[in-house]
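Appendix B. Raw example, untouched.
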Amino acid sequence: MEVPLLDLKAQYKKLKDEIEPVVLKIMEEQRFILGKETQDFEKAVADYIGVPDAVGVSSGTDAILVSLMALGIGHGDKVVTTTFSFFATAGCIARAGATPVFCDINEDTFNIDCNKLEDILKREKIKAVIPVHLYGQVCDMDALLALQNKYGFFIIEDSAQSIGAQYKDGRQAGTFGEYGCYSFFPSKNLGCFGDGGLVVSKDVERAEKVRILRNHGGKVKYYHDYVGGNFRLDNLQAAVLKIKLKYLDEWHSMRQKNAEKYETLIKNKGLDEFVTPPKKVYKESGVKNYHIFNQFVVKVKDRDNLKNFLTENKIGCEIYYPLCFHMQKCFTYLGYREGDFPVAEKCAKEVLALPVYPELTDEQINYVVSKIEEFYRK
């Protein structure tokens, strides 16, 4: 049996008859940039997230970058983020000209540790904080907002992996800070047919600033109020995303059910001494999308050998992420050393993502767990 980490062909097969006529119509009309499809998707996704405005952009990376630009963050500014995430989170801070400041994580959630964050805030002047709602679960936003009130800084939420994920009060990831940033990379729960992203804000004026910046800083053609960039979402991508959006909660539910199946099998087989499933911190609050499992990430013993064994048995798995930001070669100039963030460093040696996509079958899940059992019992 083969179990891919993600099977986008299975998803496309179900949506093909809806998607192809819409895409063909756009190609026949030859309208690709900032048209009706983009506007329609922006309205639909703003309603879904629960914000007054949403701005489609070219990628999740550009969503973070343009948000930094919109807040005027650049040279001389310091921005804190987790040391454990996809590279774009930290890379955008450096690209904006600001200085990345890294923080350790909570071992249960993999999200930024607000106690460690306050230690940083006490000793340094911080312009902004970028929390990452990693793998599909929201950070401790009560603690973060309390720190914002106490120390005064902007919040840009990296919600690239968490569109639709809910906090304990039901609010969605991306709706707490000055800006919320999302990615529509094909592997995301809501993925397009290439690169795409989104920026949202509770403040319509802030959203409008991003809308101007995404188009070279001008509202009127050839007249530029700011130095912006080419951060536009294509109509083709917007049209695909609008179709997929109506299925998103159903897909979240299917991922949650698959995660529950994994957890039950791991426990019943006595594998929990080797495998630690992700902790779902808001489930008891009664919210629907307490964790949307963009990735189902477990902590395991002997991770690298297990990964090799699963790969040999045609089971897709991946390490998100093997090397923390503070240990990346490109950030050596910041002066961090191995051992500075022990929790993140420990997690980087233990985490492994297993297949959890909606179309995954019970038979496939059973096979994955049986091979994990075989590895540890051999």
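End of appendix B.
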